[in-house]
Structures are given as structure tokens and as C-alpha cells.
Amino acid sequence: MKKICISLVLVATVLLLASASYAQKTLRISLQLPLKHHLGQNLLDFQQEVEKESNGSLKIEIYPSAQLYKDKEVPQAVASGAIEMGVASLTRFAGTIPAVDIFYVPFMFDSPEKVVKATASGSTIRKALDEAILGTGTRVLWWQAYGSSILLTKKEIIKTPADMKGKKVRVFGKTLGDTVLAVGGAPTMMSGSKQFLAYQRGTVDAGMTGITAVKSRKLYEVMDYMTLTYNADIEFIVIINEKVWQGLTEKERAVVSKAGLRVEKELREKMGAIEQEVLEWSRDKIKVVDLTDAERNAWREATKSVVTGYEERSGALGKLVVEEAGKL
Fold first, then answer.
1. Which long-range contacts (CB under 8 A, 24 or more apart) does 290-294 make?
2. pLDDT bracket for residue 20 (50, 70, 90)
């Protein structure tokens, strides 16, 4: 009898452990950048809070440095359910929702204050874009501030629009490509993870990227100049498959939402300091080229046509967000 009781206790324990294991839900997140990058640190903060506040019912697994999917592959991978969550640059949805490129319209958001207002969770611009993305089968959990767009070159300094003529330029969005075309350059669409080799091999003459990528991707090793054009604001979004989201309990969704909004707010508030720190760090590794007011105004004038092209391509939603941007 004693042996039977012990056996029953062991069976019950095994069943209890199996049940607990089965109840735990794993959410995998694909990230194209290394964990040391500020977007990676942002995800680690999210992971820590969700696993703690969900009392172990949710496990977060982060796959950095494009281990599973490249940036351009993330929207489809998440929408199809191949992976539960992913981080992608906002422009990766431009194929189906051209209006998301509003942040790449040159000089549309020409101050940190305008960026903060436009990207706030309650803003008309943010709500309209999040709702449109939901129609693809993916839900936006939070936005990740990446920073300002700058221009890298290898052999020649670029300061004016005229300097861009005939240059092959790496871009990461259709509207950024239009910006390059407007000043006489030839845009080449390329994922962030492919930049280093492209610059090293001379596949392109110049490249648009974010300030922080110069350090995290070691681009200073293969480029000579960094021109502070600040022509666009780069935004990334953290998305989750909508069916997976609906499969979470109400409590789990609350935990995820709260953690996402918290880490979004914290990153947005310190983005300026992060960029400034990387900029100062970079100055003895790559030549930093500041623009005068006159040079920056020349860029504004030369790229005005990009707004018209954006509105024509993005329809009613594009016109709405341009109008809202104007109110800022």
C-alpha cells in the first residue's frame, strides 16, 4: 500500500509539472540588431518585466542580430505565425501601407518635440498607422525610437544636394529613395545588417542610417565621413501576431501592454542623450560633418517634391497624417 501511495504521489507530481509546463506560453521575438544596441536593451527590459509580472505564465525569448529573420522578413513572419513577435522598421509596412513612410518624408518632423508628439500613443498619426497595421494580421505593441537619419560616405564629403549627384546611396525605405532621386542620386534598398559589407566593398558610395548604427554596427570602420543631415526620423515597432495576442489571457495582455508602454516611454525620453553620447564617441573615429543653416535649407528646398509623391502614393491616409503633421 505504501508503494502504491508513493507511486500515486510521483504520478501526481509529474502531471502537475507537465501541466505547469504546458500552461507557460513562449513568445519569441526576432530582432535584427545586437542586444547591446538600445533596441536590444529595450527588449531585455520588457522581457524582465513580463516574465516577473506574469508569474511565469509568459516566457520571452529574444533572437538578436537577424538570427531568424532579416528586417524585411519580419512583418510576414509575424503575420503568418511563423514567429510570435518581431521588431521591424516602420517602413517595412510601406508595401501595403505607404502612409507609414510619413517619418521618412524629408524634414517633416524637424525637431525632437514634433517627433515626440507624432509618435505618442494617443496621437492621431500614431493611432491611424497602428490601426492600418492591425489590418495585416499583426498588432503594434509599442514603438521604439531609433533616432535621426544621417549620411555616411567613404571618400568624399557630402554637404549639399549637389554633392549627391550620381552617387549610389543605401536607403531603407521608398520615400528615402525618393529623397535621393530628388537630389540626383541613385538609391539602393538594403537591410541594415548588410550595410557593413556593402560599404567595405564599395557597393554603394554613401548610405543613410541612424547615428547609433555607426557604433553598434561598427560602420566607422568602413566609412570616413558622417554628415548630420537629420532628414528623417527612424522608428521601429514591436509587433505581435494578432491570433497569438487573442490567445493570451486578459491578465497576460495587460502585463504585456503595460510593460511595452513603459519601456517605450523610457526609451523615448532618453533617445536624445543616447544619440549625443554616440555622436561624441564617434568624433575621433569618423569625421563628423555638421551642416550650416544655409546648407540645411538647400536640402529642404531640393527635396520638396518628395512630399507630393508621398501623398499621391499613400492616398487618404497619407494626406491625413501629412495634415496632422502640419498641425504640430
1. 290/228, 291/159, 291/227, 291/228, 291/229
2. very low
One-letter identity of residue 197:
L
pLDDT tens per residue, range 253-309: 999 999 999 999 999 999 989 999 999 999 999 999 999 999 999 999 999 999 999
Angle between helices 305-327 and 174-182 (to 10 degrees): 120
Query: Is 6 domain-assigned?
Result: no
| Contact present, 266 and 44 (Cβ < 8 Å) | no
C-alpha grid cell, residue 131: 490601426
Orientation angle between helical segments 124-134 and 305-327, nearest 10 degrees: 120
CATH number of the CATH domain containing 163? 3.40.190.170
Domain that holds residue 200: 25-327
In a domain? residue 297? yes
Domain membership flag for residue 46: yes
Residue 54 belongs to a domain: yes
Q: Do residues 112 and 185 lie in contact, with contact meaning Cβ atoms separated by under 8 Å? A: no
- Burial of residue 194 (number of CB atoms within 10 Å: 0-12, 13-18, 19+): middle
**Tens-place pLDDT, residues 21-46:** 446 899 999 999 999 999 999 999 99
The total of structural domains in the chain comes to 1
Is 201 strand, coil or helix? helix
